[in-house]
Amino acid sequence: MIESARKEDVQEVLPLLLAAIGHIAYTLAGTDDSLEATRVLSDFYIREDNRISYKHVLVDRREDGIAGMLLSYAGDGAAALDLPFINRAGRKSGARADETIAVEAKEGDYYLDSIAVNERYQGQGIAKALISAFEQKGLEQGYSRLSLIVEPDNARAYALYKKLNYIEDGSIQVSGSRYIRMIKQK
Description:
Elements: E1 2-4, H1 10-21, H2 24-29, H3 34-45, E2 57-62, E3 65-74, H4 78-86, E4 109-117, H5 126-140, E5 145-150, H6 155-163, E6 167-174, E7 177-185
Helix pairs in contact: 1-3
């Protein structure tokens, strides 16, 4: 069943989120240490004032746990969702830590930040169902344009987005890597 995430889901959602965002996690956390990044992002997940807050997460909840997650938010005000990361006390300098946090979402868009499905549930249409719920949520909030970014070498995700009628709309640099921006008008 697809529903809003809860704070208590942090132990199940965070590994999926980290798998989805990869090296971007280090930029957000402001550290190159994986354990510290996990701790920092866990703390941010249970807060309500930032881009990875549980408030922005949909989950596919099953009897035996969370099968998948999707993180999304409105592009309007997206920069403000990054301020808690930028202003975090204890933010360290280093290769990833001093990188600028890119605002991925554009004003006027409802933005799919990240999506991941637990390995044991893959191939069951969960990603498609989560994306459908994301699109519905965007429409309910008054957005007619949906957006996301995808790594150029993630052929599986790119093919799914194309199948769901997302089209390319340029590219963006995030944490030192190029991503393809895709949009869908509703």
